[in-house]
From TrEMBL:
Domain MaoC-like: 163-277
InterPro entries with a match to the protein in the record: HotDog_dom_sf, MaoC-like_dom, MFE-2_N
Annotated organism of origin: Salipiger thiooxidans
Record PANTHER family: PEROXISOMAL MULTIFUNCTIONAL ENZYME TYPE 2, PEROXISOMAL MULTIFUNCTIONAL ENZYME TYPE 2-RELATED
Molecular-function GO terms, alphabetical: (3S)-3-hydroxyacyl-CoA dehydrogenase (NAD+) activity; 17-beta-hydroxysteroid dehydrogenase (NAD+) activity; enoyl-CoA hydratase activity
Domain called Peroxisomal multifunctional enzyme type 2-like N-terminal: residue spans: 20-145
Pfam families, per the entry: MaoC_dehydratas, MFE-2_hydrat-2_N
Protein name from the UniProt record: Acyl dehydratase
Swiss-Prot/TrEMBL GO biological process terms: fatty acid beta-oxidation
Domain of life (superkingdom): Bacteria
Length: 289
C-alpha cells in the first residue's frame, strides 16, 4: 500500500486526556539527565518531590496522539520518519493532578519532491477541565520516503541568523549510553530509539536519541540560564532538528541574547556536529536583568 495523502490530510485524532502525576514529572526530568550531579540544588525541585516543579518541556510528551504515523491506513514507512521541528507556546505552567485534554489536527502537509520526502505539521492544543488553554504544541515530522505526490511546497521560513560573536551563555548536558532507553519510558516507544536492527534499516549505525530529549535538554539549559529556574518565565520555545543525536553525546546548548528573545543551537560536542538550528526562545515576562 502506497502513501495515502488524502487519508492523512483528513485524519481525525481523538482527544487525549491525561493527568500529570508527581511520578510522571520526576521520571521526565531524570530521563533528560537532571540529577546527574546529586549536589546540584537547582535540579532538585525537578527530581525530588519536596517542593516539586514540572519542567515546561514535558508538555511535548503529553496529550498527543502518540506514534500515529504507524497507522497502516496511512501507508507511511513509519520507521524512517524523523522529527523535523518542534515548538511549544506555554500559556501557563503545567499543573499536577488536573485533567488536561489535547486536541490534535493536521495543519500542513508539504511535498519536498520525488526522492526528497514530505513534511507534515500537527498542532495540539491542550486545555484544562474549564477549557482554558494550558499550552499549544506544533510538531513537524519528516516523512523521508513519501515525497513526489504533487502536494504544496513549503513556503520559505523567516530568516534565522545568529549574531556574529561567541555565545553569551553555554551549558553542557552529558547523556548516557542508556539515555534513549530511559527517555522512551516517557511515552515515545518508536523502536528506532532502542532496536539496533531497526536503526540500521533506516541508515543509522545504532539507535538514535529522541529529538524531544534534545528539545528538553535545550529547554532545561534556557530555564537555568535565563529564567532563574522559574518555569513560569518560559513563553515559547521552538527549534529545528538538523542532525540526530546519539546516546552518549554531550549536548551543548549555545545561547545568544537577541533583544527580547534568545537564539540558540545545540551541538554534539564529541562528534562536532550541530544537531539543532533555528532555536528561538521568548519569555512569558521580561528577561532577567
Amino acid at each position: 500500500m502506497g502513501f495515502n495523502r488524502d487519508r492523512l490530510e483528513t485524519l481525525v485524532f481523538p482527544p487525549v486526556t491525561r493527568r500529570v502525576t508527581a511520578k510522571d514529572a520526576l521520571l521526565y526530568a531524570v530521563a533528560l539527565g537532571l540529577g546527574h550531579d546529586p549536589a546540584d540544588a537547582g535540579d532538585l525541585p525537578y527530581v525530588f518531590e519536596a517542593g516539586q516543579k514540572i519542567l515546561p518541556t514535558m508538555a511535548a510528551t503529553l496529550c498527543t496522539p502518540g506514534h500515529w504515523v504507524a497507522d497502516p491506513d496511512l501507508g507511511i514507512d513509519a520507521d524512517s520518519v524523523l522529527h523535523g521541528e518542534q515548538a511549544i507556546r506555554f500559556h501557563r505552567p503545567i499543573p499536577l493532578d488536573v485533567p488536561l485534554t489535547g486536541r490534535s489536527r493536521v495543519v500542513n502537509l508539504w511535498d519536498k519532491g520525488p526522492g526528497k520526502g514530505a513534511l507534515v505539521e500537527v498542532e495540539c492544543k491542550v486545555t484544562d477541565a474549564a477549557d482554558q488553554p494550558v499550552w499549544t504544541v506544533n510538531r513537524t515530522a519528516y516523512l523521508r520516503g513519501e515525497g513526489g505526490f504533487g502536494g504544496r511546497r513549503q513556503p520559505p521560513a523567516p530568516a534565522w541568523t545568529l549574531p556574529d560573536r561567541a555565545p553569551d551563555i553555554t551549558r553542557d548536558m552529558a547523556t548516557g549510553p542508556h539515555q534513549a532507553l530511559l527517555y522512551r519510558l516517557t511515552g515515545d516507544m518508536n523502536p528506532v530509539h532502542a532496536d539496533p536492527a531497526v536503526a540500521a534499516a533506516v541508515g543509522f549505525d545504532r539507535p538514535i536519541l529522541h529529538g524531544l530529549c534534545t528539545y528538553g535538554i535545550a529547554g532545561h539549559a534556557l530555564l537555568r540560564a535565563v529564567c532563574d529556574n522559574d518555569p513560569a518565565r518560559m513563553g515559547a520555545l521552538s527549534l529545528r532538528f538538523s542532525a540526530p543525536a546519539f546516546p552518549g553525546d554531550t549536548i551543548r546548548t549555545e545561547i545568544w541574547r537577541d533583544g527580547p528573545r534568545m537564539l540558540f543551537r545545540c551541538r554534539a560536542v564529541e562528534r562536532g556536529v550541530q544537531i539543532t538550528t533555528n532555536g528561538t526562545f521568548t519569555f512569558a515576562k521580561g528577561p532577567i536583568q
